[in-house]
Amino acid sequence: MEENEKKTDGDNVDRQEIFSQTVRAGKRTYFFDVKATRNNDYYLTITESKKRFNKEGKQYFEKHKVFLYKEDFEKFSDGLTEVISYINSTQPAQTDPDKTSEDQGKELTESFTNVSFDDLEE
Question: Which is it for strands 28-36 and 42-53: parallel, antiparallel or unpaired?
Fold first, then answer.
């Protein structure tokens, strides 16, 4: 995991992105970016990035993004925790000698449980 805290000053562009965390999980990379609106309300963007190749073999990144606003933090966190717990308790462990999807799930769960949505509301 990598963390990158951005300092804010009077410039609106610098104020937009407040904090970032990167989670590398197998073939995917997740970016958790705390940003501020013009009214200085924080929100979270979650971006999934996957390396792909076109027909000519040229590399590009396919990205999917979710915007999560403060009023939804608690419900999102509760739902995500419940779903991850369900998967971890019902999915049999894989036999892959490298990193299993269960290990990746645990890493992702740990990164989510280490994020406190309450901290973002200050």
Answer: antiparallel
